[in-house]
Amino acid sequence: MEFDLWWLLVLPLMFALGWLASRVDLRQVGKERALRRDAPQAYYRGLNHLLNEQQDKAIDAFIEAMTADPDTVDLHFALGNLFRRRGEYERAVRVHQNLLSRADLPREARERAQLALAQDFFKAGLLDRAETAYEDLRRSAYASQALTSLLQISERTQDWHKAIARAAELELRATGTYQRQIAQYWCELAAQHQAAGREAEAQQALDAALQASPQGVRPRMLRAQWAQQRGDLALALQSLESIDLVQPEFLALAAVQIAQLRQQLGQVQEGLAWLRQRLEQTPAIDLLDAVLLLDPDPASRARCAQGYLQSHRSLLALKRVLEHPAPGAVVPEVATAMQGAVDNALRSRQRYRCAACGFEARQYFWHCPGCQGWETYPPRRLEELSLLGS
């Protein structure tokens, strides 16, 4: 009997404990369900704030959503990208490092988080850490994107050997042609060697640049510059005039230097005939300047300038006519006043403009300071380009 009475006391107690446990579980489940209901609401609020360009409110909403559902990977990416866009790189790094610390993160999400972390470092200017992060992605689905960023890092750090290797690898991956960039990298490397007094290495680098891009103009101009510094005027002239064989439109960049070399070599008439022929074939104000520099006859210079103005009605051509008037044609004081007026009008037009980003500069750049593009400047100033466009 005592045994039976004991069971009669235990059974109700067990029932009561089970009921209490179920109530606790139900409350916990209810709280979790409420949090999960709140998470998407906060997420949608964040998206709405983003659409309304309210980044502060969007960040608050995403943080609330992450608190409610910390396992949601997309919320981490959204929040990290927002921090990066706002320039809060340290917070972006923490978000993406928190993702990478999770052992249960799928491979695809892990690679995506690694890419986001590398972008954080790159934007923050921590190029060494960005390079390490991008290197870890070279065998991932983001390999091409990582290599492109690594190439940009090589350019910023002026590590031209790495830039050449990475551009060649990108070309092997069929992501485009990089021969023009590779040629420019070799030119930059050649300039480094020349500045350090390593002339043999500099010439080898120029050979490599021409091998990468046989129609390259910059290697020819560099070779001419250094040959002229050594006193080898014939080689300098040959290098510059060879531009006409590969890219005649770029001959304008070297025209005045060609005229000066012809003068120094005592080849005025030969040079004048050669330049006049190129001026007819590829008209450019710099070629006109070269012809005017070599022509010893004032009347002939005036006729040349006037003829160019008739066929190319630009302020630059008018300026040359005023600078080389026919004898007795214009009163000197009037000509000076007219030149001043033309100079004022040309002040904003004697610039080169990048075809990629529109960055303007008074001198010609092979590497655009604005968009970091290579060979994006046409070899014509704005005044001439507007004339060609019309």
Automatic annotation (TrEMBL):
Residues 352-376 form the LapB rubredoxin metal binding domain. Residues 26-390 are cytoplasmic. Keywords: Cell inner membrane, Cell membrane, Iron, Membrane, Metal-binding, Repeat, TPR repeat, Transmembrane, Transmembrane helix. GO terms for cellular component: cytoplasmic side of plasma membrane. TPR repeats lie at residues 39-72. The keyword NAD does not apply. The chain crosses the membrane at residues 6-26. It is a single-pass membrane protein. One of its GO terms (biological process) is lipopolysaccharide metabolic process. Coiled coil: none annotated. It holds the Pfam family Zn_ribbon_LapB. Modulates cellular lipopolysaccharide (LPS) levels by regulating LpxC, which is involved in lipid A biosynthesis. May act by modulating the proteolytic activity of FtsH towards LpxC. May also coordinate assembly of proteins involved in LPS synthesis at the plasma membrane. Belongs to the LapB family. This is Lipopolysaccharide assembly protein B. It comes from Thiomonas bhubaneswarensis. The gene is lapB.
